[in-house]
What we know:
Layout: E1 2-10, H1 19-32, E2 36-41, E3 43-47, E4 58-67, H2 71-84, E5 99-105, E6 110-111, E7 116-117, H3 126-135, E8 140-141, E9 144-145, E10 158-163
Antiparallel strand pairs: 1-4, 1-5, 2-4, 3-4, 3-10, 6-7, 8-9
Amino acid sequence: MTxxxxxxxxxxSNELGxxxxxxxxxxxxxxxxxxxxxxQLSSLYRSKAYGVTDQPDFYNAVLSANTSLLPLDLLDxxxxxxxxxxxxxxxxxxxxxxxxxxxxxxxxxxxxxxxxVPHRELMLRNFVLVPLLExxxxxxxxxxxxxxxxxxxxxxxxxxxxxxxxx
Length: 167
């Protein structure tokens, strides 16, 4: 089993649910799958849109789990959750019902045309770093302790809403 960290986010509702419901449903799918153990979900956060800013605020959380899946199989699982939430890709960094990103896969560095791990934007996003530290205060990425990164403690544009909970 390998410990993985998954970023969950979304900012638009559709006939299948609201962004926070999509996040909870995705977390529940991890729990329901025999490929995952010890699933934990951070609190839910609301953040300003990153990159393309002319869109609604995002809801974000980070999930950790131990998995038996290989990295590309994990990516396929994550993308199946996006499809189940009715995700439509309109523009890069644009609106979405659900985004499910593989942030970390153990200590591995993966550079594949479908998957880059650690996630290339991980160290630039407080809406990822803050919930990561909530799940593991001692987490290191490529030898760097996340708690030593100023952005991991920066709540600018970020609002902690509540414990997300897994249905």
